């Protein structure tokens, strides 16, 4: 399969960047993961808007306009055999002599690749997944979709080591998010999510879930959610590009609600599938 790197389409095995790329040296860059259904980007404008915000937040000049980005992504998507894909796109500040502050002149490195879109199986959806809780020890700019992901890497590894699908993080006793997903809690028919501030990444599914709740008359409320509320929830679910919405049925070994995926999850999953097909 072909990837895009700095103006060229090239086989992945031949794509090379210089070792002084600031993505490699400092983790100085941002990225996006965009689901492709039937060769079309899902929520493309939202992903692009978030990319532009991330670039802006760390002062990387945006190397392309919206139409330019869409054309590049379409090129990579068109060169891939599968109709459903997961596009990974990364922009780093570029290549420069190693020094922390921004180089005076530098050209951003742009990399786009695509892979098969692997979604949770029906068996996984029917059972729900297990999560493990942990303290959120990441930095205070989680709203930037930065490639500096060490905190998220350690949180994901913590989940693996505890035989869980995802870690659910808390900062000062309040729910933040997963290692690579947003976390939602249902109590008495209301879907609760934490505020989209600097403590979480605003998933593209954050806005989508809000829309789907409105369309399906599911009450949606944003507020800080305590650890005890997560354990007392009727339902807990995750959202991300590759999980879509996914029910959590065990946390730290304890069942969530009655231990089975709940009705709000089912409604949202159905609505999500309809939105994909629309
Ligand atoms: N939070 C974090 C830390 C993530 O890495 C992701 C996945 N990109 C999300 C939330 C969910 O975002 P999205 O819905 O855009 O996949």
UniProtKB/TrEMBL annotation:
Gene3D superfamilies: 3.30.470.10, D-amino Acid Aminotransferase, subunit A, domain 2. It holds the Pfam family Aminotran_4. InterPro entries: Aminotrans_IV, Aminotransferase-like, BCAT-like_C, BCAT-like_N, Class-IV_PLP-Dep_Aminotrnsfr. Belongs to the class-IV pyridoxal-phosphate-dependent aminotransferase family. PANTHER family: AMINO-ACID AMINOTRANSFERASE, D-ALANINE AMINOTRANSFERASE. This is D-alanine transaminase. It comes from Noviherbaspirillum suwonense.
